[in-house]
Design goal:
By secondary structure, this protein is an alpha+beta fold. The longest helix is centred in the first third of the chain and has 38 residues. The strands form 2 sheets. Strands 1-5-6-10-9-8-7 form a 7-stranded mixed β-sheet, sandwiched between helices. The protein has a 3-stranded antiparallel β-sheet with strand order 2-4-3. 40% of the residues lie in helices and 19% in strands. A hairpin with a 2-residue loop joins strand 7 and strand 8. Its cofactor is Mg(2+). Tetramer of two alpha and two beta subunits. It comes from Falsibacillus pallidus.
């Protein structure tokens, strides 16, 4: 039995030395040290030995197992190191290769328009105000002279979350909240840029999510002339000093009187073309004098204070300024479209 154990030890060590990969090495371990291996088979015959020989054979068997396991560990470490070296050789980085240039981005056209408008109005003494996009029905409608059941609510098909909570349909709630914070004391002079949401079918000129920038001025002796002068400065700054504006009567529940503003067509110079549908004018925004009911609900004395408000869509302005024919281009993140605006970077 002693001779058999020593032969198994030499045989196993020889095979271990010749093993070329980790799988072969594991097979050798299972073959010699497993429960069904030859060493276990030899030890099953220990019952035939005398009481004096059994301890001696048990100790020898343990020594054989230890010797085989030691060789297995040595070979395992060696094979693992070789595998690491092979991996390093295959993944060698040539540090002499030229680097890959990092592409430099540019401002999104809508971001550019919003920032340009903000800079213009900040220069005129306005402050930028923001508010929540998930809004209360009160601030989105009721505080703006749109009580429940008002037919004008149907013009803004809304995303309601609960009966009294919705995704804001315009940035006018920011105006209502700002007026409320002033507690009936002027002046107020703000613009409110932000995203708004309406249940609309997406097409070339409509989107269920879009941006608005609204403005509000409240003070003593504010007149329609102040509104017209402000809008004229805005139009000439955004579209060129040769642009003309005109105001047409309109209706908005939160302003009285209400107007829509057109700018002279850049393409035909006001003579009439397909872009302006032969009129020579292009609609750009809505505006008006703040309705007395809106002032009173916010705590202002409508006999002392007056004001004007206006609202515009940055997408609409960007489409006119840059000649974009589909509003969806602004939201598809097509790098080919966005690259065209790099030339406008300062």
């Amino acid at each position: 039995m002693e001779q058999k154990l020593l032969e198994l030890q030499n045989e196993a060590i020889s095979q271990i030395e010749n093993a070329e990969d980790l799988k072969s090495l594991n097979d050798i371990r299972v073959a010699y040290l497993g429960k069904k291996g030859p060493i276990t088979e030899v030890l099953r015959g220990m019952g035939k030995l005398s009481a004096e020989e059994r301890p001696k054979m048990g100790a020898l068997a343990n020594d054989v197992r230890s010797a085989i396991q030691e060789k297995l560990d040595e070979k395992l470490n060696r094979l693992e190191q070789e595998a690491v070296l092979k991996q390093l050789e295959s993944e060698t980085i040539d540090v002499t290769l030229p680097g890959r240039p990092v592409k430099q981005g540019n401002h999104h056209p809508l971001t550019r328009i919003v920032e340009e408008i903000e800079d213009l109005f900040i220069g005129m003494g306005y402050q930028v105000a923001e508010g929540p996009e998930v809004e209360q029905d009160y601030y989105n409608f009721e505080a703006l002279n749109l009580p429940k059941g008002h037919p004008a609510r149907d013009m803004q098909d809304s995303f309601y979350i609960t009966e009294d909570t919705l995704l804001r349909t315009h940035t006018s709630p920011v105006q209502a909240r700002t007026m409320e914070k002033h507690q009936g004391k002027g002046p107020v002079k703000i613009i409110c840029p932000g995203k708004v949401y309406r249940r609309d079918n997406d097409d070339a000129t409509h989107s269920h999510q879009f941006m608005q920038i609204e403005g509000l001025v409240i003070d003593e002796k504010i007149t329609m002339a102040d509104l017209k002068g402000t809008l004229e400065v805005f139009a000439k700054k955004m579209f060129g000093s040769d642009r003309e504006i005109r105001l047409r009567p309109s209706f908005f529940p939160f302003t009285e009187p209400s107007v829509e503003m057109d700018i002279s067509c850049k393409i035909c110079g006001g003579k009439g073309c397909s872009v302006c549908k032969g009129t020579g004018w292009i609609e750009i925004l809505g505006a008006g004098m703040v309705h007395p009911n809106v002032l009173e609900m916010a705590g202002f004395d409508s006999k002392k204070y007056t004001g004007f408000a206006f609202g515009m869509g940055p997408e609409r302005i960007a489409m006119l300024k840059y000649g974009v024919d589909d509003i969806r281009h602004f939201y598809t993140n097509d790098i080919r479209f966005l690259k065209q605006f790099a030339k406008y970077e300062a």
